Amino acid sequence: MAKQDSFINREISWLSFNERVLQEAADANVPLLERLRFLGIFSNNQDEFFRVRIATLKRLLALGKRAKATIHYKPKKILSEVQKAVLRQGRKFEEIYSQIHAELSKKGIHIINETQLNAEQGEFVKNYFNENVRHALVPIMLQQVKTFPELKDKAIYLAIRLSVKNKPQSKQYALAEVPTDVADRFLILPFKGKNKYIILLDDVIRYNLKEVFVAFPYNQIEAYTIKVTRDAELDIDNDISHSFLDKITKSVKARQKGVPVRFVYDKQIPRDLFEFIKLKMKLKDNDNILPGGRYHNFKDFMRFPKMGNDALYYQRIKPIPHKKLPTGASFFEVLKKQDIMLHYPYQSFAHFIDFLREAAIDPLVKTIKITLYRVAAKSMVINALINAAKNGKHVVAVVELQARFDEEANIKWAQQLQDEGIQVIYGVQGLKVHSKLCLITRTEAGKNQHYANITTGNYNEQTSQVYSDDALFTSNSAITKEVEHVFDFFEKNYKVHQYKHLILSPLSTRKKFIKLIENEIDHARKGKPAEIFIKMNSLVDEEMISQLYKAGRAGVKVRAIVRGICTLVPGVPGMSENIEVISLVDKFLEHSRIFIFKNCGDELYFISSADWMTRNLDYRVETGCPIYDKSIQRELRRIMEVQWSDNTKTRTIDPGLRNELRIHASAPKVRAQEAIYEMLK
After folding, report:
1. pTM of the prediction?
2. Would you say domain 504-680 falls under CATH 3.30.870.10?
C-alpha cells in the first residue's frame, strides 16, 4: 500500500476533528446556548489551525519540490483541499447559527442588529456608544493614507463605504477596528417582560456611524466585517547577547505582524470595496481568502452572556470529593498509606490546592518544585506557591515561556514569582517543557521524604472544570526519586539520569512504548491474549502508527480513543482490520492520556503528558508514569471501558472520515461523561 494510503493527512484529519465540534453545535439534543458555545469553540479552533498549521504549510511552500520529500505530500495540494473543506464547513456553520438564532428567538432571547432597534433601544445604544465606545474608535480614511494599515491578528475590523445616494462616483472608504479590548462584544439591551434583547458591539458601531462621520457629506454609510489571521509561529533569534526571556518577549510582539495566512470577509461586502482592500493588502487568490457571515471572531460566543433558564445550559456538576481525602485529613498521612488518583473534572481540583497549602505551612516541608505550562488567570496555584515562599520554603517553578498563546501570561507569572523570591527556571534550551509534575519534600525522622503529583493536564483550576484529566498523588519512593531526577535535570541540564519507572521524552518515550507494543506482538504470535487499549488527544507519529499496524496484523486487538487528530487509517483489510478508533466529543474536553497493555493478563497501566506526536516524543520534555496501585488500575480500566461503550457522543474514525455516531439501537444508552460521574460518586 502506498504511503499516502497508510496515513490520513494531518491537516485533513484536524478538519475532521473540528467537524465533530460542529456536529455538537448542530445537535438538537444539546442545550441551545451550549450549541452557541460549540460554534465559538469551532471558530477558535479554526483560528488556531490557520495561525499554526496553515502557516507552517505556507512556509513549506517556499521549499518547492523539496517539501514533498520532507512531508510526503505537496503543500499546495493540501492547501487547496483545506480551502474546499473550510468553505464547506463555513456554509454549514452559517446554517447552524441561523437555526440557533431562530430557536433562541422562540425562547425569548433575541440577538438583533442595528436595523431592528426600537426608539428606546436606539437611544440606549447611542448613549452606550458615546460613553463607552466612541473614544476607542479611530477610523482611518483609506484614500488619505499612503500605506494601508497593518491589520492585527485576533482583531476584527469594519470596512466602511461612504457614498452619496445616486452618485456612485462620490465615495470614500474607511477602516475601523472593533474595540473589543475596551468594550464587551455583547450588549444586553433594556427589556420588559420575558423577551430579552442583545446586540453585538459591531452593530452598536454601525448604528452610530452617521455621527462618527458627521463632518463628511455622505448620506449612505455601510460597514462590513473583515479580519486577518497571521502566522503565529515564534521566530526566536540566536543573539546570545539577549536573555531567553527577552527573545520570547520580542517574538510575541512580532507575532502581531506575522505573514497573513487567511483573510475573512462578510460575503455581502460590495465588490468595489472588496477589490480595493484586496489590492491595497496585496492579497492573492491563493492566500486563503474566505467569504463568511456578518460576524467574525465567533470565539467570543464562548462567553455569550448568561441568559435564559437552566434548560438552555448543561447542568453543572458538583465536583466529588475523593473519599480517601476527608476534610481536615493530612495529605501526607494519607499518601504514606496509599496512592491517590483524581479524575478531573468529576473530582475536585481543590484537593491539589489543599496539597500545596498544606505544604506551604507544614514546618517539615523544605522544598516545593512544580512545572507550570498554563495556569488560570486568577491562579490559586500561584498564590499557594507565593505563600509557601513567604513561609520560608524553597520553591522552584519551571515556567515554560513557549506555551503557545500563553507566552505573555507566563512571562508575567514568571516575573511575579521571581519578585516573591521563588526560583524560576525558564524551561530547557531547545526543548519545550510539557511535563506536569509537582514534588514536595519533607524532613521525616531526619530523612527526606518525597510526595509527588504527576498529571496529564495543567495546574489550572479553570480548565480542570472542563478538561478531563487524571492526576496521580504518590509517595512511592521509586517514582518520587525519579521525579526528583527530572527537576534535577531542569536545574542542571547536563545531568541525565537513568529512569526505571518514569517514561521521559525525549529520552525514552518512543522506545518504551515501541517495546510495550512489541511485547504484545510477541504474545499474539505465541497464541496468548494480546490487547492494546490507549487514549490520547492526537495520534500522528508515523513510526508509532506503523507499530500499531504491525500489532494489528499479528493479531493484537487494538482500541484507541483519540479526541483530535488521528492519521492512522483503521479497519483496512491486510493493514489495520484489528484496529478500531473512536473519538469522544462532549461537554468536557477529553484531555487525558491513558495506556493499557494486556501483558498476558498482568496488565500494565500508564498515564502521560504526551500524545503520540513526533513533537511530544522527540522534541519536548514529557513525563509518563506507571500506575502500580491495583485499585487505581481497575478504576482506569472501568473509565476506559465506559468511554468505549458510549453510544451517544462517540464517533467512529474510519478511512472516509465520515464521523458517524456510534448509535446502537438495541444497546442501553450510555453517555460516558455522565456515566463516569455517577460511577465515581
Report:
1. 0.93
2. yes
